[in-house]
Amino acid sequence: MSEAPKTDHAYDGIEEYDNPLPGWWKWLFIASIVFCPFYWVYYHNGAKGRSIQDQYGVALAENTRLQFAEIGDLKLDGPTIARFMAKDSWVKVGESVFRANCVSCHGREGEGKVGPNLTDEAFKNITVLADIGKVINNGAGNGAMPKWSNRLHINEIVLVSAYVAKLRGQNVEGGRPEEGNKIAPWPEPVVEEESDEEGDAKS
């Protein structure tokens, strides 16, 4: 029989060994409790830029700047938007811009909330592909759609325009009813050689 000490209580004849936690574990637990308020004050109630979200935003912005260095400053026109619609990696950048700035009005999938549904075939302020960029850049509806030229890089506007254009025709379930007029299909993007594309983007 083991001679290990036991607690002074038993349940239905079942006894329990007295195995206290190690002292180092107890002190580590106490130290973590003492540390928590300081952590909260520094990262969540301190100076702007300290929070994990702020640091992530800075890192994301830096990564985006590095990516944009590959393509230079893009032109905000129909052919450029159409060209980047065919590039899935850049459309994903446009999607991240959309998710960060547009979901409160247009919904997470573009189905429409306060703003119109972007997944159907009807448009209120769009007649040609280039108009998507113009609306995002300059705003529309007497301020109902704010202008983003003072908040987004020109490349972000081009890429989010490409993402929005690709939402057309998906007809997400539960979306707002169609608003506006039906328009002609988007033009087919012209696939270019990588070197030519980079030269055009930087010119």
From TrEMBL:
Entry keywords, A to Z: Electron transport, Heme, Iron, Membrane, Metal-binding, Transmembrane, Transmembrane helix, Transport
Chain segments annotated as transmembrane: 24-43
Record field: compositional bias (Acidic residues): 190-203
Positions of region (Disordered): 172-203
InterPro entries: CcoP_N, CcoP_N_sf, Cyt_c-like_dom, Cyt_c-like_dom_sf, Cyt_C_IC, Cytochrome_c_Oxidase_Subunit
Molecular-function GO terms, alphabetical: electron transfer activity; heme binding; iron ion binding
SUPFAM superfamilies, sorted: Cytochrome c
Protein name: Cbb3-type cytochrome c oxidase subunit CcoP
Source organism per UniProt: Stieleria maiorica
Encoding gene, per UniProt annotation: ccoP
